[in-house]
């Protein structure tokens, strides 16, 4: 069971503190945290096999989902602690009804280097409807998941017959001016590992960056297998049969190792979270849709912000911004060096990817 660290209930009323600098979020290993990944919902319009089971998903309690005011408050405190970028994810972030308002409010928050940069990872289904409004609200870039270009395969893999809608979403993202547009595919043996080259060709043809992701043990259905997973090395071997790949340096804290495709300018990325973890440069902290702060994708403990945000429901016991900041500092202070997938006794987090925020 996930150990939730509940805080003693503070007794102060909220102090509407102005944005102030509280200093950077540095962990015991010297990693400075600049990226807050916020899950807007655990719900989704697809049921990708590597992420969610077909049925019986234990949804988060609706009453516990953070309101937009609460999200804004937490992001403002995070910005005062050195966070410069907010990534909206889920579940599927675009099924949150007020997603455009969330983007607008996040993009208006002043961070240490100016307004927060707001990006999103999405399955793209609602982009034809929402892309222009999201761009106008301040969203700068999107990563869209597309694991296959074959409609039947897509329907089997995601359990929904919606490939055309994803393709329309990608077109809408480009038309709205998001830049760059990155495409994510989880490489799966016997499912889409014969399509990697085609996916790159499609991405190159539309000026997007294709990225292949190693499957991680975070699925609610527990189908992950170390033996079956397609390793980053294998992905590169497949691609090298069709393209000349030249490493692009300067990876920084990014999960993707990038390569020029032939002579460029197109690039392809490989996110080898399992076989070549990038934890040494990690700059990420996560907020779940129900207000739990997680210092790692694979964390087995969380810090509950809800008591500080809501008090007892009658306005008593709500924490100050300093109280919220103290939880961030404590969470990052307790962060482990890495995810430990290779350690004996590794335990998958109790929350599935869709409820953590991928
Ligand atoms: N292990 C690990 N995987 C991550 C982390 N952040 C994102 N990923 C995975 O990387 C894949 C792509 O995620 P995205 O949401 O597109 O994020 P990103 O690749 O960091 O995005 P960019 O900032 O555009 O490079 C997904 O499978 C994520 O679960 C992380 O901190 N640790
Ligand atoms: C959890 S999803 C949430 C955002 C959105 N619904 C989407 O699919 O892009 C974020 C990313 O995590 C990836 N993902 C989900 N489950 C994964 C797993 N078990 N291993 C690796 N990546 C995974 C998805 O492919 C997607 O690119
Ligand atoms: S990967 Fe994204 S689109 Fe697929 S089920 Fe998970 S949350 Fe939904
Ligand atoms: S697994 Fe944890 S420590 Fe490693 S990069 Fe991801 S969030 Fe950071």
Automatic annotation (TrEMBL):
One of its GO terms (molecular function) is cyclic pyranopterin monophosphate synthase activity. Keywords: 4Fe-4S, GTP-binding, Iron, Iron-sulfur, Lyase, Metal-binding, Molybdenum cofactor biosynthesis, Nucleotide-binding, S-adenosyl-L-methionine. Binds 2 [4Fe-4S] clusters. Binds 1 [4Fe-4S] cluster coordinated with 3 cysteines and an exchangeable S-adenosyl-L-methionine and 1 [4Fe-4S] cluster coordinated with 3 cysteines and the GTP-derived substrate. [4Fe-4S] cluster 2 binds at residues 279, 282, 296. It holds the Pfam family Mob_synth_C. S-adenosyl-L-methionine binds at residues 50, 91, 145, 216. It catalyses: GTP + AH2 + S-adenosyl-L-methionine = (8S)-3',8-cyclo-7,8-dihydroguanosine 5'-triphosphate + 5'-deoxyadenosine + L-methionine + A + H(+). InterPro entries: Aldolase_TIM (IPR013785), Elp3/MiaA/NifB-like_rSAM (IPR006638), MoaA (IPR013483), MoaA-like (IPR040064), MoaA_twitch (IPR010505), MoCo_biosynth_MoaA/MoaC (IPR050105), rSAM (IPR007197), rSAM_sf (IPR058240). Residues 28-245 form the Radical SAM core domain. [4Fe-4S] cluster 1 binds at residues 44, 48, 51. Its cofactor is [4Fe-4S] cluster. Catalyzes the cyclization of GTP to (8S)-3',8-cyclo-7,8-dihydroguanosine 5'-triphosphate. Monomer and homodimer. HAMAP family: MoaA_B. Belongs to the radical SAM superfamily. MoaA family. This is GTP 3',8-cyclase.
């Amino acid at each position: 069971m996930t150990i939730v660290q509940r805080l003693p209930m503070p007794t102060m009323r909220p102090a509407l503190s102005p944005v102030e600098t509280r200093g950077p979020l540095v962990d015991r290993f010297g990693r400075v945290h600049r990226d807050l990944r916020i899950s807007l919902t655990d719900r989704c319009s697809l049921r990708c096999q590597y992420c969610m089971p077909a049925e019986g998903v234990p949804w988060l309690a609706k009453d516990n989902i953070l309101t937009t005011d609460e999200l804004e408050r937490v992001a403002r405190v995070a910005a005062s602690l050195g966070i410069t970028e907010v990534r909206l994810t889920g579940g599927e972030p675009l099924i949150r009804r007020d997603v455009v308002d969330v983007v607008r409010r996040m993009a208006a928050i002043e961070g240490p280097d100016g307004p927060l940069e707001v990006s999103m990872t999405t399955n793209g289904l609602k982009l034809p409807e929402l892309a222009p409004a999201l761009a106008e609200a301040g969203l700068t870039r999107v990563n869209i998941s597309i694991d296959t270009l074959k409609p039947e395969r897509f329907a089997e893999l995601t359990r929904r017959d919606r490939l055309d809608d994803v393709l329309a979403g990608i077109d809408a993202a480009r038309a709205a001016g998001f830049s760059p547009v990155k495409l994510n595919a989880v490489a799966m043996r016997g499912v889409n590992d014969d399509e990697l080259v085609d996916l790159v060709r499609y991405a190159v043809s539309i000026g997007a960056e294709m990225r292949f992701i190693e499957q991680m043990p975070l699925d609610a259905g527990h189908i992950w297998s170390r033996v079956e997973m397609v390793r980053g090395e294998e992905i590169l071997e497949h691609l090298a049969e069709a393209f000349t790949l030249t490493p692009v340096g300067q990876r920084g804290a990014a999960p993707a190792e990038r390569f020029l495709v032939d002579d460029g300018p197109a690039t392809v990325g490989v996110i080898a979270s399992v076989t070549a973890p990038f934890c040494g440069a990690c700059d990420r902290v996560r907020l779940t849709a129900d207000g739990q702060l997680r210092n790692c994708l694979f964390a087995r403990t969380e810090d509950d912000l809800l008591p500080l945000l809501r008090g007892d429901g009658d306005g008593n016991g709500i924490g100050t911004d300093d109280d919220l900041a103290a939880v961030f500092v404590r969470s990052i202070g307790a962060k482990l060096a890495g995810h430990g997938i290779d350690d004996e006794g590794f335990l998958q987090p109790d929350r599935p990817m869709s409820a953590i925020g991928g």
